[in-house]
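Slide 14.
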Amino acid sequence: MRSVIQGNPSYELSIDITNTTHGHTLKFISFVTTARHPEPQVQYQALLSRGELSTMRDAINQALED
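Slide 15: predicted structure.
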């Protein structure tokens, strides 16, 4: 599942979460359309367990409630 988090005509930040046999792969991907060679760049990648992904979701939900 890939979703755009933030974007404007010259920049896009997206998140990609996929299920694997070992857990969930989380990637933050940037794309700068004005770059000399525009292509998606993985800025952060992690393999997370279901519990770790759930903890991340809880932290985001808590931040949205404050």
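Speaker note: The chain has a mean pLDDT of 94.
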